[in-house]
Amino acid sequence: MGFTVDQSIKSFDGRLLKLSHKSEVTHTEMAVNVYLPQQYFAEGSKKLPILLYLSGLTCTPNNASEKAFFQPYANKYGFAVVYPDTSPRGANVAGEDDSWDFGTGAGFYLDATEEPWSKNYRMYTYLLKELLPLIGKEYERLDTTNISICGHSMGGYGALMLYLKNPDIFNSCSAFAPIANPSNCQWGQKCFGNYLGSDKAKWAQYDPCELIHNFKGEKKPILIHQGTADNFYRRDHQLQPENLVKAAKNSPLDGLIDLKLVDGYDHSYYFISSFVADHCAFHAKYMGLD
Ligand SMILES: N[C@@H](CCC(=O)N[C@@H](CS)C(=O)NCC(=O)O)C(=O)O
Q1: Alpha-carbon distance 1 to 25, whole Å?
Q2: pLDDT per residue over 102-158, tens digit each?
Q3: Ligand 1 within 6 A of CB of 273
Q4: Which H or E run includes 198?
Q5: What is the pTM (predicted TM-score) of this model?
Q6: DSSP states of 214-255
Q7: Which residue among 230, 251, 279, 283 is the active-site one?
Q8: Does residue 98 carry a catalytic annotation?
Q9: Which of 175, 173, 171 is nearest to 288 (CA)?
Q10: Given ligand 1 and candidates 33, 53, 54, 58, which is best to mutate, with the most ligand atoms within 8 Å of its CB?
Q11: Active-site positions, per UniProt (predicted)?
């Protein structure tokens, strides 16, 4: 089943497509936005790389499409941006709308193994086995063999986790204020506990601080920005990017976590958009575009 194009909006010389499709993985209708840069519309253009951007808790595909400002850099370098949703919606699972940090808007990019979540909350398989292949099929001038990954907060964790597990699929990884050690913070413990149960060995299969030890890809840096005025970082200890720097020691990525603490920035899209240029330049290099 293909995409329905709900809207096609001109933006920074390219077009933002608001798409939806029926997912056989989540058994729901899924929304996804795709930004096609100006190069996509040029006669005889070659296949364009893809930046997969994963959003944080409560987001739909629209938050980053409207407020992160990837578009000028997507046009500068010539890559598309794919903005998936953060969970299935309307799965009708009891309790999915009870809190903002679990269930709807908080799929944690994993495959739930526990009832009643395991039928629908399967964002890991959805992204890798359904969404990316469908993008490749429907947009033949996008190159699904040249994908980089980036994300914010829960999506920053998602980007780290997906990259560390699948270096054959993703060229490069960066994150804004990621939940770097989910087994060790309230947000992660709540979601891992409900979706995966109490077996910590299952949690380790998704925690970047565990996965980094078994990373099998090329030795490249991972770029992370973290604002020092982010309350989820300094007050609530939900993010803990330093734990990933520590975990990298004596791992294949020893010394390659490029954590940039940026003074005075909070957790919002004002922070993200301030450093999007750096992240796009970083990924463009590994996409072969600079
Ligand atoms: N709803 C939460 C905040 C959730 C939040 O900050 N979500 C971040 C990701 S973790 C986000 O991107 N929010 C949407 C936005 O800023 O557009 C609260 O009330 O504290």
Answers
A1: 12
A2: 999 999 999 999 999 999 999 999 999 999 999 999 999 999 999 999 999 999 999
A3: no
A4: none
A5: 0.98
A6: G--S----EEEEEETT-HHHHTT----HHHHHHHHTTSTTTT
A7: 230
A8: no
A9: 171
A10: 58
A11: 153, 230, 267
